Amino acid sequence: MNSENTLCIVVDIQERLLPALYEAEKMVERSRIVLQGLQALGVPLVATEQYPKGLGKTTAAVQLLLGDAPVFEKTRFSAVIDEVAAVLAAKNIRNVILLGAEAHVCMLQTVLDLRAKGLAVYVPFDCTTSRHPDNKANALQQMRDAGAVVSNSESVLFQLLGDAKHPAFKTVSKLIQ
């Protein structure tokens, strides 16, 4: 996994969805740390929004870190919509890091679609949630069973770094506290 063959998909971290989610603030905080680290590492980003007319736009705290990353609207639960598939193909992506909600719906279906395409998928457990913690736990197990790597925010960033001599090491290590 490196910045040339990896893409991060931010799945539906939306204004009107967050109040219903278990420990949403913690998930947003950890996702922001990962996004800052990925920016330092030069990993490209895309984001999706599930029916933004009803669930609102990506929450401002996350939107600020997306920069010029494309944000795609969807009604399909999986984030592997045509626009995202086009980015995966154009950038020759082999690894995908997923952040977002809900773990047992959109995140799980995205994992299943990405794995069906033969891609390696990394889901930091602290960067996803559901309305009920049992649904999150069940989804994470299903993701593992499907071959995704259920990891954590710090491990994913350090896996991308690979070496303390990496130019982004100091930046990334300051994010992890």
TrEMBL record:
Residues 6-154 form the Isochorismatase-like domain. InterPro entries: Isochorismatase-like_dom (IPR000868), Isochorismatase-like_sf (IPR036380), Isochorismatase_domain (IPR050993). This is Isochorismatase family protein.
